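Q: I'm teaching a short session on how sequence maps to structure, and I want students to see two examples side by side rather than one. Could you give me a first protein with its sequence written out and its structure tokens following it? Keep the formatting plain so it prints cleanly on a handout.
A: Of course. Example one:
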Amino acid sequence: MVTITLSEFKQLAEYIKANYGINLQEEKQALVTGRLHAVLEEQGITNFSDYLKYLAADRTGTAVRTLIDKITTNHTFFMREVEHFNFFRDKVLPQLAGLKHKDLRVWSAGCSSGEEPYTLAMLIDEFFGTEKQKWDTKVLATDISGKVLEIAKRGVYSSDVLTALPANWRLNYFTRLDSEYSTLSEKIKQEVIFRQFNLMEPTFPFKRRFHVIFCRNVMIYFDNATKHQLVRKLYDLTEPGGYLFIGHSESLNREETSYKYIMPAVYRKDEV
């Protein structure tokens, strides 16, 4: 296996942090080597210094996409941190049901393999019922990894991971493909718009602000300065009275953010 020197690791870590915000500590050196070994072998690269040159020289974007797919951790599951979904269902949706223009804008940032945005779509569908046809309620779901987005778009999940969902959801929103896998209904798939997006982009391309932003278990990979910068952007993209959900292992410095604390890992932007 190709090994990485401390100097090479620091160069690679600096590149990743500068472009993607991910803060790789030195204890991740072996993990990075293991995940990228096959890439170097496939390209006939014998050391990480040459790999860095390969990244810099590639103009197709393929090398960088492969790097991101390898180093990002895409661990999620249905109903993860279920208190958030209950709060969204019981408090947020009834509040937003009074919107004058019937245009509900929800963003799942760092959506991974799709469980989070699909759960939000099912909650919205169940909440609005027959009234839903009068609303635009599509969920925007973004992730930095193109590979994981392809998995999310398929909407196919092993039956054992669906046990966390309510029985009526499994019945109404899923179809068994075989003894092991089930697929989401087209009705729910069409409610989620998947896009590849890097949260470190200097400017965000969204023309309108969101009523709800889920950005959970993403900022744990960032240092404080990067996190603070991202939270400011998210705040600017939140509608007055809108909500930000982060992971339970994350927190915002209340002295540095304009968001108001509501409950663990839930924050709100003041109404005008």
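Q: Perfect. Now a second example for contrast.
A: Example two:
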Amino acid sequence: MKSMTGHGRATGGPAPDGRRIAVEVQSVNRKQLEVVCSLPRFLAFAEAPLREAVAGSVARGRVTLSVALEGAQEKGVAAPGLDRAAALRWHKELDALRKRIGLKAEVPLEMVLRGPGVFADSQAEAPLDEAGQKAWLAVLLKATAKALKEYDRMREAEGKHLAADLLSRIGEMEEATAAVGKRAPLVVTAYAAALRTRIAVLGLELGTDDERVAKEVLFHADRCDVTEELTRLGSHFGQFRAFLSGKEAAGRTLDFLSQELNREINTIGSKANDVGIARHVVALKSTLEKVREQIQNFE
């Protein structure tokens, strides 16, 4: 079991232009897998293979893969340059917006430099040929594999802590369920005693072995029987433990199991009609809510 959140970074190279490639992978929680790549424009051709590399290691979550180039380029390879005209146009737009909303501060230079097209990458204007793409892709994939390895190591470590916490919560729920199982047989006995007390208070002359009293007690026993729900809860707890100790991503499965647990607990609460069991049901639901929140962090 792995956490959906993690971070990994690795460098590779040298790249065909002499620089080193830095690949950074990080993720946050999502129900489905979403991969976002941030690449230099001339490396846009590598986005699909990099997405596939991530998808091969991650089941779900929003994963951001960023690629940066480090170091100096070899001679003969043009470096990114400043497009002064684009910078002036961007500054003009920002300044007009500043005046319109009534801000007194000047537009900062760093904001202008982040504008679209301000830095023109000369390599983007001359796409790489097939041989160049293969050379770059080989270095990119190698660095990405290293980053994903670090990323997985962090997710596995966090996943162990999450699993330990969940196992502790499941243990608490098992104890509460066992307490319900002990209390359940006493509910019918308590109901029969209360029924006879009400009959006596009302002055009705009914014997303790009256058939009508027996039928009412039996009907109540059937109506408040939670044996089936307790059995299913025990089965779900066992499945929880099995998935938490497994090697496959099971976040979605655990989410489904938590819904089943909630259904059984609600049924016990509605059927039992007993103050003692109601207390245990409240404890079960409180712990289950914490379990469900924690499951959202699992891949």
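Q: What should students look for in example two?
A: Point them to this: DSSP finds nine helices and six strands in the chain. Also worth mentioning: The mean pLDDT is 83.
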